[in-house]
Design brief:
By secondary structure, the chain is of the alpha/beta class. It folds into 4 domains: 90 residues, DnaA, N-terminal domain (GMP Synthetase, Chain A, domain 3); 148 residues, P-loop containing nucleotide triphosphate hydrolases (Rossmann fold, 3-Layer(aba) Sandwich), CATH 3.40.50; 74 residues, Orthogonal Bundle (Helicase, Ruva Protein, domain 3), CATH 1.10.8.60; 92 residues, Chromosomal Replication Initiator Protein Dnaa, Chain: A (Orthogonal Bundle), CATH 1.10.1750. The chain is 50% helix and 11% strand. It contains 18 helices and 9 strands. A 5-stranded parallel β-sheet has the order 6-7-8-5-9, with helices on both faces. Strands 1-2-3-4 form a 4-stranded mixed β-sheet. Helix 12 packs across helix 13. 36% of the residues are buried.
Length: 479
């Protein structure tokens, strides 16, 4: 751990060295880390200045693990990182704190347990409710959410929920869509609007992965599962992001089922997001899938050209920067996949415009836009999904998707399943358990065995090797 005489600059310089050593190239370091300046060190809490709110949001979304690692290496296990935004405007500068800082310590949202003085309000009637951080990002409001045909139904439904949470037919609200289409923004906007209209309501946003980790801690390490359940049953509005991650986790699903039933029967609002609709979710209990279909299921689709332009213009206005219509239209025409990618390009351009520019920004040119898009979009492979792999393998062998889940031991079907598992392990970031659930409802050991078989046959069978090579080309060509 760093000694007490160290300055904030010395600490941050050591963190930056670790960060730079763990990045693939200098472009990322120069764009996202070099402009950050250490401004305060109190104990194990370091505060740094960043150029804009979108800047620190991008760091949180993409480099929080690396930041956590570096800070812990330098300041120890209790390290915390806070941000302050230092915005350069015409002729002046404005510095204001973010909401709130990143806490490297975890879990960031402890629930009451037997070792704390907090009491369960369900035990003692009339006890004043506990103050709980809703874990909402204050920038993800309806005001910053651009309405269009791709999200109008979801947005209007969210506003209706915010007017009367738990009392409308949209309970639960199940929002699905591909990565980066605004699901998290929308559900957080609903949470923020509810807190604005009903300050006393207990609202909580939580990632499914964090819920899963808290369940494990409660069940295995702390032996306080009842406290875990009681905590979540206190919520007036519970928002769970990426609920598909509960797949294959029976214990988590069982605990969540109890929480769901209690909240729904109590007239509390439930909101979930997923990368696919309930009908396409694998590895979740049917009783949960049935409950997901009780309320409203709504899809967020990819934004069209005009919507992408509107999103860019709103960000330009919010940041107070100048960007010509030509550049806006160029970016909107080239970045077509999702909103997150669009925001990434915008934020990179903004960061580059102020990097090494002193107190004034550099002018954003069409050439800068082309360079950023070439680096962030054109040179980056699109994300490969397990579903894409399954469909490509089945199409190649002339099989239906459903037969992957059958119990047949026919050689050609077993082999197709094994090849799909092999590609899913090597071409996606999903865990072995998730791959097993998605491809035939198998366990992680089956996936490992399948990958080993594919590798062994690939090395000895020329025809099999041709099949695998051709399937790999088809998967890559579909991106």
């Amino acid at each position: 751990m760093e000694n007490k005489s160290s300055t904030c600059t010395e600490v941050w310089d050591k963190c930056l060295k670790i960060i730079k050593d763990n990045l693939a190239n200098d472009y990322v370091y120069d764009t996202w880390f070099k402009p950050c300046v250490a401004i305060e060190l109190k104990g194990a809490t370091l505060t740094i200045s960043v150029p804009s709110p979108y800047f620190y949001e991008y760091l949180e979304a993409n480099y929080i693990d690396l930041l956590s690692f570096a800070l812990r290496m330098v300041l120890g296990k209790d390290a915390e990182l806070h941000y302050k935004v230092h915005v350069v405007t015409k002729g002046s500068t404005v510095t204001y704190p973010t909401n709130p800082g990143i806490h490297v310590k975890n879990p960031p949202m402890p629930f009451p347990n037997k070792n704390t003085k907090q009491l369960n309000p369900f035990i003692i009637p009339g006890l004043q409710q506990m103050e709980i951080n809703p874990q909402l990002n204050s920038n993800k409001t309806f005001g910053n959410f651009v309405e269009s045909d791709c999200n109008r139904t979801a947005r209007s439904s969210g506003l209706a929920i915010a007017e009367n949470p738990g009392k409308v037919a949209f309970n639960p609200m199940f929002v699905f869509g591909g990565s980066g289409l605004g699901k998290t923004h929308l559900v957080q906007a609903i949470g923020l609007e509810i807190k604005r209209k009903f300050p006393d309501k207990i609202v909580l946003y939580v990632m499914a992965s964090l819920f899963q980790n808290q369940y494990i801690d409660a069940q295995i390490y702390n032996n306080n599962l009842n406290d875990f359940l009681n905590f979540y049953q206190m919520m007036d509005v519970l928002i769970i992001d990426d609920i598909q991650e509960f797949a294959g986790k029976e214990g988590t699903q069982s605990a969540f089922f109890q929480i769901f039933n209690h909240l729904h029967q109590s007239g509390k609002q439930l909101i979930f997001t997923s990368d696919r609709p309930p009908v396409d979710l694998s590895g979740l209990n049917e009783r949960l899938l049935t409950r997901f279909r009780w309320g409203l299921t709504v899809e967020l689709k990819a934004p069209d050209f005009e919507t992408r332009k509107a999103i860019l213009k709103k960000k330009i206005f919010n940041e107070g920067i100048e960007m010509s219509d030509e550049i806006v239209e160029y970016i909107a025409s080239k970045v077509t996949t999702n909103i997150r990618e669009l925001e990434g390009v915008f934020t990179s351009l903004y960061a580059e415009s102020i990097h090494n520019a002193g107190k004034s920004k550099k002018i954003i040119t069409i050439e800068m836009a082309k360079n950023v898009i070439d680096y962030l979009v054109n040179s980056t492979k699109r994300e490969i999904s397990i579903d894409k792999i399954k469909r490509t393998v089945c199409d190649y062998f002339g099989l239906s998707i459903d037969i992957i889940y059958s119990k047949t031991r026919k050689r050609e079907i077993v082999q197709a399943r094994q090849i799909a598992m092999y590609f899913a392990r090597n071409m996606t970031k999903h865990s072995l358990a998730m791959i097993g659930v998605e491809i035939g409802g198998k366990d992680h050991a089956t996936v490992l065995h399948a990958c080993k078989i594919v590798e062994d046959i690939y090395d000895t069978d020329k025809v099999f090797r041709q099949h695998v090579t051709e399937i790999e080309k088809r998967i890559n060509n579909s991106l």
